[in-house]
What we know:
By secondary structure, the chain is an alpha+beta fold. It is 32% helix and 28% strand. α2 packs across α5.
Amino acid sequence: MTRxxxxxxxxxxxxxxxxxxxxxxVPPGGEARAFDAARDVLRDMRFQLERVDAxxxxxxxxxxxxxxxxxxxxxxxxxxxxxxxDLLNQQFRRVRITFDDHRRAGQVEVTIFRTQSPGLRLSxxxxxxxAFAIDPALAAxxxxxxxxxxxxxxxxLEARLARAIEQRAASPTPPATR
Length: 178
């Protein structure tokens, strides 16, 4: 019984996709199809599109927050470590997809941002109370409350999105329009 549990845990924790590149190729003559595929893949993952500029070959999304393990319907995390990090920190992801000048290739960039709250003071006696201090120097700079900083790129999600775009652009049926 213990052996079976260990095998199942190893399969769940070790079965994650490998980190890869966010680069993808566009099939010859499929430039418009690849652009539509990129837009549709982002929509399928519930990203809100911020900028869709076919002329410049650029698609960007709005911030997509996630609470990791607490949001099992959200599929932006690839590894258990990412699930835990998103649960313990107030984080969001922002996607930028660019196509080269000849529209023969594209690049997916996913940046993870974390919200910083410099004035938050947690109580040492109970987890239910917290105080918020305002630093006048930070407030004068417009940083009195909370602000977001980029912490790292998400290579796992970049690779997953790039593969999904390639597959959808190469599929014989046209991408669904919404």
